[in-house]
Design brief:
By secondary structure, this protein is mainly α. It is built from six helices and three strands; from the N terminus they run H-H-E-H-H-E-E-H-H. It has a three-stranded antiparallel β-sheet with strand order 1-3-2. It comes from Corynebacterium epidermidicanis. InterPro entries: HTH_MarR-typ (IPR000835), MarR/SlyA-like (IPR039422), WH-like_DNA-bd_sf (IPR036388), WH_DNA-bd_sf (IPR036390).
């Protein structure tokens, strides 16, 4: 087994800054969503994904792909949301093994309530602090980290 390639002091400092930034952004978004609409960030992500889908419905497996979640996590999340009246689960007509998830009116209402404060929170925490040039550089860096080719 190869020896670990330990981070030098500068790399370690940057890594800790990255982790702190992620925690701060997640905490800020969670607080805003909970306060304004009684939604978790995970619920909000599912609702946004469904709201952008054709007929506000998606197969569970496609939600997993879109949110980069494993099937177990998505299934548990959708079940909790179904109990809260935000979404409905049904068998797929084309494939009896498939699960179709549908955004219900209550879920859409909660999303519409949450969205303005959420976007303002994102703007305040991120975009108000960055110049147009910063945004371009940040996008480029994130693309490299995520290995996205545009």
């Amino acid at each position: 087994m190869a020896a670990p390639r330990w981070l030098n002091d500068d790399e370690q400092e940057l890594w800790r800054f990255i982790l702190a930034a992620i925690r701060r952004l997640e905490r800020g978004m969670d607080e805003t969503l909970q306060q304004d609409s009684d939604l978790s960030a995970s619920e909000f992500s599912v609702l946004v994904t469904l709201s952008e889908a054709a007929d506000r419905r998606m197969r569970l497996r496609d939600i997993c792909v879109e949110l980069e979640w494993d099937r177990s996590r998505a299934s548990h999340q959708i079940t909790r949301m179904e109990r809260r009246g935000l979404v409905a689960k049904n068998k797929c007509a084309e494939d009896a093994r498939g699960v179709l998830v549908e955004l219900l009116p209550e879920g859409m209402k909660r999303l519409e309530t949450a969205a303005p404060a959420h976007v303002e929170s994102v703007r305040r925490m991120v975009f108000d602090k960055l110049s147009t040039q910063d945004v371009a550089v940040f996008r480029e860096l994130l693309n490299k980290l995520l290995e996205i080719d545009h």
